[in-house]
Design brief:
Blueprint: H1 3-11, H2 13-39, H3 43-49, E1 50-52, E2 59-62, E3 69-73, E4 84-87, E5 102-105, E6 114-115, E7 121-128, E8 135-140, E9 145-150, E10 152-155, E11 162-163, E12 170-172, E13 183-189, E14 192-194, H4 197-200
Antiparallel strand pairs: 1-2, 2-3, 4-5, 5-13, 6-12, 7-8, 7-11, 8-9, 9-13, 10-12, 13-14
C-alpha cells in the first residue's frame, strides 16, 4: 500500500470520523423519528391523528398523511379509574419529557383502586417489566386503536380475553417507574400516543 496514502488517512482521521458520524446519523434519522413519535406525547401529533366531530361528539381517527377521516369511533367511553389527575398528556415529568398519557391517582395516595377498560376490546398484553410501565395491560380496540393501563398492583385478565367497560382488569399501584400509586392511562393510534382527553373529555 502507498505509504503516502496511509499518512494522508491518519492526518485526516478526525475529519473521517466526523464524516462517518454524519453519515450514520443520516441513516438513523428515520429510526430516531419513529422512536420519538412512539415514546413522546406531542399535542401537534395527537391533533393530526384524532379529533372530535363537534356535531356528533364522535371521535374521528384521521389519516396522518392527508387529514381525511379514517374511522369514526362511537362511545360511550369511560374513565378507567376515578381520582385526581397528577400529570396530563404532553406535560414533563422526571421520567419523560413529553408524557404519553394521563396519570390518575387516588386522592388519599392509596393503592388498589379498581381499573376498567375505557371501551370494549381484546387484551393483547398482560405482564410486567422491571422498568417503565411495570405491571401493565394493553388492550386492542380495533381500527389501529389501543389503550395501556400501567403501574398496576394486580392484573386480573389474560391475553386473548375480551373486556368491556365495567369489567375489572386490575388494580392501581406504583410498579415500574412511578413516584406513587397511580394509573398511567395511555391511548395509541397507529402505535402513536394521542391525548386521552379527546375520548374522555375534560372532567
Amino acid at each position: 500500500m502507498n505509504p503516502f496514502l496511509i499518512m494522508t488517512f491518519f492526518s485526516f482521521k478526525k475529519e473521517f470520523f466526523y464524516v462517518l458520524l454524519a453519515f450514520l446519523l443520516v441513516i438513523l434519522m428515520p429510526l430516531i423519528g419513529v422512536i420519538i413519535l412512539t415514546r413522546t406525547g406531542l399535542d401537534f401529533v395527537s391533533e393530526r391523528l384524532v379529533a372530535i366531530n363537534e356535531v356528533t361528539n364522535e371521535v374521528q381517527i384521521l389519516n396522518p398523511f392527508d387529514g381525511s377521516v379514517y374511522k369514526t369511533i362511537k362511545g360511550p367511553f369511560v374513565w378507567p379509574v376515578t381520582g385526581i389527575i397528577t400529570l396530563e398528556f404532553g406535560e414533563s415529568s422526571r421520567w419523560q419529557l413529553f408524557h404519553t398519557g394521563i396519570d390518575i391517582a387516588n386522592p388519599e395516595g392509596k393503592k388498589g383502586d379498581l381499573i376498567t377498560p375505557f371501551m370494549p376490546g381484546t387484551v393483547v398484553y398482560a405482564g410486567q417489566i422491571s422498568w417503565g410501565f411495570g405491571k401493565h395491560i394493553i388492550i386492542d380496540h380495533g381500527d389501529n386503536l389501543a389503550s395501556i393501563y400501567a403501574h398496576l398492583e394486580t392484573i386480573w385478565v389474560e391475553v386473548g380475553q375480551e373486556v368491556k367497560p365495567g369489567d375489572v382488569i386490575g388494580t392501581e399501584d406504583s410498579t415500574g417507574w412511578a413516584t406513587g400509586p397511580h394509573l398511567h392511562f395511555q391511548i395509541n393510534v397507529f402505535g402513536i400516543p394521542v391525548n386521552p382527553r379527546v375520548f374522555l373529555g375534560g372532567s
